[in-house]
Structure prediction request, 313 residues.
Amino acid sequence: MTEIAHRFVEGNGGLRMHVAEAGEGPLVLLLHGFPECWYSWRHQLTALAAAGFRAVAPDQRGYARTGGPADPSQYTIMHLAGDAVGLIDALGAERAVVVGHDWGAPVAWAVAQMRPDKVRGVVGMSVPHRPRGSRPPVATMRRYFGEGFYMVRFQEPDAPEAELDRDRAATFRRMFHAISGDGSGALVAPEGGGVLDALPEPDELPAWLTADDIDAYVAEYADSGFTGPVNWYRNLDRNWELTAAWHRAPVTPPALFVAGDRDPVAAPDAVARLRDFVPNLRGTVSLPGCGHWTQQERPDEVNRALLDFLRGL
Prediction:
């Protein structure tokens, strides 16, 4: 079986990043989302390596073994895209295929949009590319979804991470189950409650997720906790301000989009309009019965889609 190796790499931005890597060949950079880490790519690292690719999954800024600065302003999309580009350079590659899931997808789309010279191809999972809107996003979310919507709630200082850190095993169980293809839940806190209060404790874990997996996530978060991950959300309006130069700019590298048909995040209207701003979209893959945790819920189908895309570049 292909071994997954671990080490720390310092990119051009000065952030020392933990990476998990496997294989030799063209570089494929795997960017996780929330609340995940390198471990969410455990099935892809070995499959890509076996197929002749060099797969590298970092813990992104603020997450797990990488950790990050305390200042919330150090988690903008410019920092996150810069970390990815700096990692490509630090790994000795001229270009990479950049794959992102959940929050990793906006980072992947941003890298492809801002630095197409560094990107052979881009794959978004769960979150389609959305062109920059005409106004800051948080007020819009508040108007449409209310104060309890998790992205709005995460703007508050201290309280969100305190809730998530209180019982990390329960946090992972509830989040992974609730918006998977096996669960039901909405990331909207009830009045007077927290986000986790809207996510029921599962009677049993879905077949794709084991107690050992939950233990692995808890162990990876032991030193850094949830403050860094929540800080990504605290920059939504700041990201809007910083990306004015790319307002409605296209994402030009070859692209693929993959999502489950039960994923509440993969907005059908945005998927239908993807090609308007991603002109080299090679295709979209919809996974029947799959929820939000695409590469973990359906590793075999995701691996096939990735390899078909990679071999066609």
